[in-house]
């Protein structure tokens, strides 16, 4: 049970707590972990130049920045997993975080998703929602939320 674990991370402190929980779970179940970081796609339309004003956004530089940011988050989280001695792989996707996490979990047969709670107040959570909330409501498998 819970041998195939999907750990979704954003690099936050609660995500690192979730990584420790996933490492502990994997060590007790002889499981393996896929460490997933999902970044929102770059929206060029948000940076349309106004007449007479050129923003000069280079899509290649944006893509490089996204890869470097993803690698930094994945490396930081991987450091938390290493002491547990469990097998893990890292993965970076571009997409809507909640939808991508649920899709990866379902399409690849993960048995549990481990994710950190964002820890927003009740009003902010109600108005904005959270990746964690959307994953919990859409996932086909159990979701372990770490606060």
TrEMBL record:
One Pfam family of this chain: Usp
Record InterPro entries: Rossmann-like_a/b/a_fold, Universal_stress_UspA, UspA
Stored CDD domains: USP-like (cd00293)
Domain (UspA) ranges: 1-147
Superkingdom of source: Bacteria
Family: Belongs to the universal stress protein A family.
Name of this chain's protein: Universal stress protein UspA-like nucleotide-binding protein
Organism expressing this protein natively: Chloracidobacterium thermophilum (strain B)
